[in-house]
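User: Sequence recovery, please. Input:
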């Protein structure tokens, strides 16, 4: 990384030498070529381009593209107008400036010469195209970026299939840390699944511009997934670290479900995963700005005392109100009435959101016979599977249900409104919220240590780290802070002979370098959030969602109404793919505003009609003027 930064700096200095000779050939003061920013200003003036382009030359990532644009224009003014010349100028701009400046054969022909000549595709379109990319990159990097909601973590506040814009300057836009990247791609090149879209040989330190607001409790926040520093490329939707723990506890040695993981057992699981590249994909590391984008609700900010008690959130001992659209898993009992896929689709209850009712659950409830149909856990290592996928035309499949006597038991993920709809079904008997007992250890829950037997419904208390906060640390609580200290705050942490060493020095306290936040999904039992992988550091925060412009159902989660595109254009939201009421809505911490889709259509229609009227009026006036002449 350091070598890459040095190479880039050398290339910039070499380009200054090229500018020196170009200024000499054009009669400008040559000394200005070696004064940073002044040389860019003089170069832009020489090419008769807008003076404010100089500001684009100081933006990381954008400045590399700007070098290409200016070098291509310079090449044209030197008479280099063939496709190959302009391609070399675009992709090897630093060195091409040296060639133009030091070659005695290359002469400055000037801007008037190029104005009088017709250009080909490259000369006519290349620099405007690159500059359009630059403008879009600036907007995407510092102001607004388009995202798609991939998971049901915030269901029903933000839904799978919502296309939204994220405001990046709310909390302060981040300068790209890996500036050499394919435009408009995040971590993977378009039309590929595993090819990374960026180069890491040049990397900049973390820096954030000032924002106009702070993160507050209950804000919906977009951030880079902290656990995503390491991924298996064929299982990118899962935490590699939890995957490793799961493989160790359920595929290698089940005793680790109840005791601390050792380095040896995790190493065995890691080896198995790495050696099964065909199934899990290659193991890859990602810089913080290229980690997966997640969107959750910030329930606790830096300095808060956070706790979950029986599924309810408490901040500083005060219970927070439950969001209107929050969902939990409920055990539903119905008398002789199976809930099929059509009913779930009609109720807009996702068929793969509930936990699988397994054999242990059945036996503990005295159930003699049970059936399952839809499960994402078929490939879970060490578990017997009772799931089978949805089949076309088989709409009567039973979902997450157990049959016992005259009663069917279901595990469904429901909001308060959905509960009322379930209560209205024929044969309804009961609906009880699932709750994991306090003190029941779940190894998949942070901090993954039986000393802190936390689970999804009973978690904490845990005080959120804050900049400048100092805490005592020892071997009893280091599991709460090891990743924060070692990875996020960028220290060298070691535990040796019962003692804590940070950057080589033994210590019994630690002072945090940045603020941390606890992010949770409104979909409380089906959200991989801070309860699973810990807190989110401020340097991972990206922005806040502001506007949903399109929303459509995922055919895998709505297998009936979410399939057809064309026929859905004439269907309502319940029967078709498009959620019309979610088009053109503003996002707040309470959910979405009303839809402004009709207003948008009216504006487009008025604009089109006005433009058409003015064009006809202008054409009529031109005909009249000709007749007068």
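Assistant: Recovered sequence (629 residues):
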């Amino acid at each position: 990384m350091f070598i890459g930064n040095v190479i880039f700096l050398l290339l910039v200095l070499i380009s200054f030498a090229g500018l020196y000779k170009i200024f000499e050939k054009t009669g400008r003061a040559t000394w200005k070529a070696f004064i940073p920013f002044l040389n860019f200003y003089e170069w832009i003036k020489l090419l008769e381009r807008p003076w404010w382009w100089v500001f684009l030359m100081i933006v990381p990532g954008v400045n590399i593209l700007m070098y290409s644009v200016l070098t291509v224009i310079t090449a044209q003014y030197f008479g280099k107008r063939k496709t190959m010349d302009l391609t070399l100028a675009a992709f090897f701009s630093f060195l091409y400036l040296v060639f133009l400046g030091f070659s005695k054969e290359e002469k400055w022909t000037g801007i008037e010469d190029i104005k009088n000549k017709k250009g080909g595709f490259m000369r006519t379109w290349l620099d405007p195209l690159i500059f359009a990319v630059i403008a879009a990159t600036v907007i995407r990097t510092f102001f607004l970026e388009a995202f798609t909601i991939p998971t049901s973590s915030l269901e029903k506040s933000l839904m799978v299939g919502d296309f939204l814009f994220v405001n990046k300057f709310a909390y302060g836009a981040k300068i790209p840390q890996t500036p050499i990247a394919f435009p408009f791609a995040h971590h993977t090149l378009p039309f590929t699944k595993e090819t990374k879209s960026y180069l890491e040989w040049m990397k900049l330190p973390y820096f954030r511009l000032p924002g106009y607001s702070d993160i507050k409790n209950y804000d919906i926040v977009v951030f880079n997934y902290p656990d995503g520093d390491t991924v298996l490329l064929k299982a990118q939707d899962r935490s590699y670290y939890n995957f490793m723990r799961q493989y160790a506890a359920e595929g290698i040695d089940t005793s680790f479900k109840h005791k601390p993981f050792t380095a040896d057992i995790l190493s065995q699981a890691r080896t198995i995963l790495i050696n099964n590249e065909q199934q899990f994909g290659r193991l890859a590391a990602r810089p913080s700005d290229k980690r997966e984008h997640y969107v959750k609700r910030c329930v606790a900010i830096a300095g808060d005392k956070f706790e979950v008690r029986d599924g309810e959130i408490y901040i500083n001992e005060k219970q927070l109100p439950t969001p209107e659209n929050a969902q939990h898993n409920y055990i539903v009992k119905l008398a002789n009435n199976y809930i099929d896929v059509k009913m779930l689709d009609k109720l807009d209850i996702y068929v793969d959101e509930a936990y699988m009712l397994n054999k242990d659950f059945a036996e503990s409830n005295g159930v003699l016979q049970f059936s399952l149909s839809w499960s994402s856990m078929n490939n879970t290592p060490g578990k017997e599977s009772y799931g089978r996928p949805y089949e076309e035309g088989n709409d009567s499949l039973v979902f997450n249900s157990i049959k016992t006597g005259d009663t069917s038991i279901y595990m469904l993920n429901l909001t308060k409104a959905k509960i009322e709809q379930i209560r209205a079904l024929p044969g309804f008997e009961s609906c009880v919220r699932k709750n994991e007992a306090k003190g029941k250890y779940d190894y998949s829950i942070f901090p993954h240590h039986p000393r802190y037997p936390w689970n999804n419904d009973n978690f904490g208390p845990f005080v959120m780290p804050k900049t400048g906060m100092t805490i005592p640390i020892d071997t009893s609580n280091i599991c709460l802070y090891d990743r924060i200290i070692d990875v996020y705050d960028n220290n060298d942490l070691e535990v040796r002979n019962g003692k804590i060493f940070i950057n080589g020095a033994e210590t019994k306290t630690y002072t945090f370098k940045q603020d941390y936040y606890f992010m949770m999904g409104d979909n409380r039992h089906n959200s991989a959030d801070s309860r699973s992988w810990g807190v989110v550091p401020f340097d991972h925060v990206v922005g806040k969602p502001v506007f949903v412009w399109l929303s459509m159902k995922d055919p895998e989660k709505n297998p009936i109404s979410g399939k057809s595109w064309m026929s859905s254009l004439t269907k309502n939201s319940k029967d078709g793919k498009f959620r019309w009421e979610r088009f053109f809505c503003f996002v707040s911490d309470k959910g979405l505003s009303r839809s402004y889709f009709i207003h948008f259509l009216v504006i487009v229609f008025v604009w089109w009609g006005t433009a058409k009227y003015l064009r006809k009026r202008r054409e009529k006036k031109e005909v009249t003027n000709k007749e007068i002449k």
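The radius of gyration is 30 Å.
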